[in-house]
Amino acid sequence: MTIKITARHDGWDEKQDKIVLDTVLKHYSEGGTQIAGYEEAGEKLGRTAGACGFRFNSLLRYKYKKRFEEAKKQRLEWRKAKGRPIRQKAPEGRIGVVTVQQKEQTSEYKQALYAVLDQVEWIAEIETEMETLEKKMKSVELQKEAAKQELAHRIDALTQIKKSSRVND
To answer: Domains of the chain: which residue ranges?
Structure first.
C-alpha cells in the first residue's frame, strides 16, 4: 500500500469546495464511486483523497443536498440504462445486512481515519520545513565561518600595518 504525501492545507475556500463537489458528483452520477471522485479532487487540489472525502461528507453533501439528491437520481438512471443492479431499500433500521449502528460506527472510523491522514500530512509538512531550515542553518554556519576567517585575515593585516608603522617611526 502506497501512502501519498501532500502538503498540509488548513483552510478551504469556495473554489476548492466547488472542485470537490463537482468532481465527486460527476463521478457519482456517472456510475463511478465517490472515492474515485475524492481521489481526483485530491489530485487537482494537492490534497489527500481522505481530506477531500472528509470535506465532502462532513459539509458539502449537506450544504448542497439538492445537488447530491439529483446526482443520486442520475446515478439510478445510469444504472438502469446500463442494466446494473439497483440497490433495494432494506427494512427500517437496516442497510442491506449492515445495521444503522454499524454504519455509524464505520462513519466514525472513517472520520478518525481522515483525522489521522491529516496528521500524517501535517507531519510530512513539518519534516519538509525542518529539512529546509536545516539547510538554511548549514548555509548560515558556513557564512559565519567565512566571516570569522575574513575577520581574522583583516586583524592580521591591521596588525602587520601597525607593526610596520612602528618600525617606520
So the answer is: 14-87+99-129
